[in-house]
Write a structure and sequence with these properties.
Blueprint lengths: L1 H30 L2 E4 L5 E4 L6 E4 L1 H9 L6 E4 L23 H6 L4 E4 L5 H9 L4 E3 L8 H12 L3 H20 L9 E5 L15 H8 L3 E2 L11 H7 L3 E5 L3 H5 L8 H4 L3 E4 L1 H4 L6 H12 L2
Parallel strand pairs: 3-4, 3-5, 5-6, 7-8, 7-9, 9-10
Antiparallel strand pairs: 1-2
Helix pairs in contact: 2-5, 5-6, 7-12
C-alpha cells in the first residue's frame, strides 16, 4: 500500500515537472515575435508584434502600403510623399534632422530606417527605449523583394509580403527573358545633372543602369566608374534617347550645346518622374515600363 502511494506521488511530481516545462516552453516561444539580423548586421528582436510604427524611409513606407500595413504607420519622414495618403501621417523630420521630441510623442513600438540614418541618430532613438530596425533600400531592384518579405513579417502581413515579393521577382525575370540582343539595344542617357556645374549620369553597377537594361536599352554611362561625364564623351556616344527629370526637360533641351545632340534635334528627349528612377523603390518598375515603351516607338 505504501509502495503504491509512493509511486503515485512520484507520478504526480513527474507530471508537474512535465506540465511546468510545457508551460515554460510555450511562454518562451510567445515572448519573441521577431528576430533578425538587420542591414547594419545587428541582431534585433521584437518581443511582440508592433502596432505603432514610424518609418524614416520612403521605400519602407511604400512597401508598408503595398502589403496593407499602412494603418500601423503613426509617423513617417518628411521625404515619405508616396502614396499621397502619406500626407495625412505625422511627419518626424528628415533623414538628417529627425524631430526626436515628435518621434517620442508618437509612442512607437519600433522605428524602421533605411541607409541614410546616422549611427548617432540610431543610438539616440534606442536610448529613448524604442527599438530600431535598419532595412536598407537595396542597391538593386531584386533586393526590394527581400524588403517586402521582411516588412511583411514585421507587420503581420507575411502572406501579402511574400506574394508581392514573388510577383516582383517574376516581373524582373520576365523582363530579362524578353530582353533584346545587346546589338539591338538603344543607347539611353539619363541626365542626373547638367549645366555650368558639369554633366552627370548614372555609371555602371547602379540601380539606374539596371532599370535601363531591364527596359531593354543600354545605359550611356555603362563604361563609367563615377557619376560625372565629360561633354566630349557625351557627344562621342551621341545617345539615341535622352531621359531627364520632368522639371528639367525644357531647360535641358533648349540649352546649348545640348541642342546639337541628335536626340535633341530629333525630338527624342523625354521627361520622367524623378521618384521613379532616382532612388530604389517600388516605382522603379514604372520607369522600366516607361523606358521600354519609348524604346519600342
Amino acid at each position: 500500500m505504501r509502495k503504491s502511494i509512493r509511486l503515485f506521488i512520484l507520478f504526480l511530481f513527474g507530471l508537474s515537472l512535465f506540465l511546468t516545462a510545457c508551460h515554460s516552453s510555450k511562454t518562451s516561444s510567445q515572448e519573441v515575435f521577431f528576430t533578425w539580423e538587420d542591414s547594419y548586421n545587428r541582431p534585433v528582436t521584437l518581443a511582440e508584434a508592433p502596432q505603432r510604427i514610424v518609418s524614416i524611409s520612403p521605400a519602407i513606407t511604400e512597401v508598408m502600403f503595398l502589403v496593407g500595413a499602412q494603418d500601423k504607420l503613426v509617423g513617417v519622414s518628411d521625404f515619405c510623399k508616396y502614396p499621397p495618403e502619406t500626407e495625412k501621417i505625422t511627419k518626424v523630420g528628415g533623414m538628417h534632422n529627425i524631430n526626436f521630441e515628435q518621434l517620442l510623442s508618437l509612442h512607437p513600438d519600433v522605428v524602421l530606417i533605411g541607409s541614410m540614418i546616422s549611427q548617432q541618430d540610431v543610438d539616440a532613438i534606442e536610448k529613448m527605449g524604442i527599438p530600431v530596425i535598419c532595412i536598407v533600400e537595396e542597391k538593386s531592384l531584386e533586393g526590394m523583394a527581400e524588403m517586402m518579405e521582411v516588412i511583411g513579417r514585421i507587420t503581420q502581413c507575411e502572406e501579402k509580403g511574400n506574394a508581392e515579393a514573388k510577383n516582383w521577382r517574376e516581373k524582373i525575370a520576365e523582363r530579362k527573358a524578353h530582353a533584346p540582343n545587346p546589338d539591338d539595344r538603344k543607347c539611353v542617357y539619363y541626365v542626373v545633372g547638367f549645366g555650368d556645374g558639369g554633366d552627370f549620369t548614372s555609371p555602371k553597377d547602379t540601380h539606374i543602369q539596371e532599370i535601363i537594361e531591364l527596359a531593354g536599352a543600354r545605359n550611356a554611362g555603362d563604361s563609367l566608374t563615377g557619376w560625372n561625364i565629360s561633354r566630349e564623351y557625351l557627344f562621342k556616344i551621341n545617345p539615341d534617347i535622352i531621359l531627364v527629370r520632368n522639371e528639367d526637360k525644357e531647360a535641358f533641351q533648349s540649352r546649348y550645346p545640348y541642342t546639337l545632340l541628335d536626340a535633341v534635334k530629333n525630338g527624342r528627349v523625354y521627361g520622367i518622374e524623378s521618384g521613379w528612377i532616382d532612388v530604389v523603390s517600388l516605382r522603379n518598375m514604372n520607369a522600366v515600363d516607361y523606358i521600354a515603351g519609348i524604346c519600342g516607338e
